[in-house]
Amino acid sequence: MSDGYPTSGKVNAVAINPLNSKVIYTAGGRGTGLETYSSAGVLRSTDGGSSWHSLTDGLTDSSGDVVSVVNSLWIDKANPAVLLAASEYDGIFRTADGGSNWTNVFSGAQATQFALFGNVLYATDDAGILASKDDGKTWSVELAGTKKEHPTAFGAFAGSSGKAFYAGMSDGFFYALRGGKWTRVSRLPFRKTRTAGSNRMVHQITVDPFAPATVYVSTNDGSWDQNLFGSTDGGRSWTAILAGSYYNYGLGTQAIAFSQVHKHRLYVGEDGSFFYTVGDGSPNPPITFAANLKIIDLRDIWTMANESDDACWVASDQGLDYTPTCSSGTYGDTVVSAPASIGLARRFTVSPDGKTILTSLQDFGSHYTTNGGSNWSLQPLYEDGFNELRPGDPSVCYAYDEAAGLSISTNGCASFAGNNSSISPSRIMTTPIAFDPKNPHVMYFTSGPNPGPGFSGPKGIFKSTDGGNTISQLPWPFAWPGAVVVDHKNGSHIIVCDIKGGDSSLSVTTDGGSTWTKATGVPPTRFWYAMTIAPANGKIVLASSVDAKHNVFVLRSTDGGKTFTKIAVVTNAPLIVGRVGLERHDLLRMRGSRIRESESGKGGQAFVYSPERELKYNQNVTKGTPDVVITTLRGAYLSADNGKTWQRLDKGLVSHSFWGIRWLKGYLYLASDGQGIVRSTTAVQKLTR
């Protein structure tokens, strides 16, 4: 989905061949903050970013899956054929031939960063601070980590002004390497907020090359993303920087780096702005806007001297950017990764002829194509929304998101207009839109966004009888519904998932909502269930959610949704905490106008994404047993026996995190966190009518 906008998707890491600057490596992963999740793997360009190719040979876990969540890269400047990758789940990988072949050199869980100090290469890992003296071939644990305290970030410098090497921990402790030993120096201040995910974890560290005792740290205790602290005594004491002022500029410190040219200049990247300030430890330094970038949600910054200014490589949720004049305050940047097809697609819809596709993307407006994906166009709609086409009339498109509510297009998704209703969904809902099978002008909507500043909307089930032009709330007995499904053959048979007091439940009606029965056998969970009704037999209903141990499980009903039985555990996957974005990434802002929305910052609920995303039968199979697919954070799975057994589908893909599902003529389409929308190369299930 490359249409002239930086739609490549999140990038965490960059490594550039010092002998050939056209050879560039990037990776998309998780990071250590309240970050967007990416599953894009490692990519290489040999032509300066004009084209990109995935590197997968040997970059696989013990099951043979491509290791696709990579947090950091390191390249040996003396021998650029050597490259190391720090992965989210599988430790550290190494290649000695520029990425053609990889070897797992330290197995384990999360690895996040690398740093070279002297002749020793270091890495942060759940196992502790790792050290290698043979160019990353073998590793030893220099400071053991624990579940409570393990390293997450490094800051290192060695030059004529001195040298310093620091490490930050998951519990906020700050260490320095002194006399060959790691010494605990201090603990970062902690200003606990109500944001889910707020903790003491150190996110990034940067050291002033002109005064190595000056060190700045971002931590995860911000009300949205990270707060910023500065020290001028090597981390012994700390000062909160710009406390309470962030929301004049963006959403918290997400990326920091000191200038290599301008003394004591600190670059700060947020979600919404890029500026620099004086890094001298003062709590409220003056702010100057830095280079005006096409990207908007910055994740990391790497500076290098470029005559009278710094050149900056900037990783973001919109891709990898490069600007030769980091302090300029003007445009002049290049989104180097723009041609890479690593978009983070969410919910989407496909027309019956396969030509029109409308999809929401993370951190972008919706995109659509009318020629089956050859060309894409941007719609100024909010991120992470839900999209549908009207059954029987695909010229009518629906976009439903938490910022704009319901928007409707009657010209094949070319332009949208809001319907002026107050309803809006939460992005963590599963199926907030449903159509009546006999009259698609009859529609049902669940409303009620996740609590937090910037979003509003009534909670409940709403109905339209004129295709979404007018909407009214139904008097149905639900506190906060987040999923609604209607039987393919019987519009009076409806199932709703509700959350009340933090627990989910399922309820069913067979008379169009006049009476409701609460389903039994449904374990309460913190997330809305995903649900699907078998198109050939409405008595069979599947539902899925996540238990306290993060197991994605499936329930089945054979009486239309009145009683359920647990029949399978599909996979185990971690929860993902992400911040709420307040700004609308519409067309104007993607063109570069700067966001300076002021928010109070008094806490706020971050999103806790369920690792279970969607559950959908092949609706075109109306005789026999249709296939059903479930998407999760850790794979997509198919069942041919109504949910009893599940087969992994994504073995041949780079990305292993998926969202939306669509069936068309037996072909399967999936939305992924790192490969945009993918389609099966052959029909998954032949149609039987």
Structure overview:
This protein has about 700 residues and is mainly β. The protein folds into two domains: about 15-335, Methylamine Dehydrogenase, Chain H (7 Propeller), CATH 2.130.10; about 345-585 and about 605-680, 7 Propeller (Methylamine Dehydrogenase, Chain H), CATH 2.130.10.10. It has one helix and 57 strands. The strands form 15 sheets. It has a four-stranded antiparallel sheet, with no helix packed on it. The chain has a four-stranded antiparallel sheet with strand order 5-6-7-8, with no helix packed on it.
Q: If you average the pLDDT, what whole number results?
A: 90
Shape designation: globular
Q: If you compute it from the alpha carbons, what radius of gyration comes out, rounded to the nearest whole angstrom?
A: 25 Å
Quaternary structure type: single chain
CATH architecture of the largest domain: 7 Propeller
- What share of residues are in beta strands? 35-45%
Question: What does the secondary structure layout of this molecule look like, with pairings?
Answer:
Blueprint: E1 13-16, E2 24-28, E3 41-45, E4 53-55, E5 70-75, E6 83-87, E7 92-95, E8 103-106, E9 111-117, E10 120-125, E11 128-132, E12 140-144, E13 151-159, E14 162-169, E15 173-178, E16 181-187, E17 202-207, E18 215-219, E19 227-231, E20 239-240, E21 255-258, E22 265-269, E23 274-278, E24 288-289, E25 298-306, E26 309-316, E27 319-323, E28 334-335, E29 345-350, E30 357-361, E31 367-369, E32 377-378, E33 386-390, E34 393-401, E35 405-409, E36 417-418, E37 433-435, E38 443-447, E39 460-464, E40 472-473, E41 481-486, E42 494-500, E43 503-509, E44 517-518, E45 530-533, E46 541-546, E47 551-557, E48 565-572, E49 576-578, H1 587-590, E50 607-609, E51 612-617, E52 628-632, E53 635-639, E54 647-648, E55 658-664, E56 667-672, E57 677-679
Antiparallel strand pairs: 1-2, 2-3, 3-4, 5-6, 6-7, 7-8, 9-10, 10-11, 11-12, 13-14, 14-15, 15-16, 17-18, 18-19, 19-20, 21-22, 22-23, 23-24, 25-26, 26-27, 27-28, 29-30, 30-31, 31-32, 33-34, 34-35, 35-36, 37-38, 38-39, 39-40, 41-42, 42-43, 43-44, 45-46, 46-47, 47-48, 49-50, 51-52, 52-53, 53-54, ...
